[in-house]
Amino acid sequence: MNGKFEEEKQFCRNRLNVNYNPEAPKPEMWLKYLKDLVEEEDIPTIQEYLGYLLICRATFYK
Question: What is the pTM of this model?
Answer without folding.
Answer: 0.59
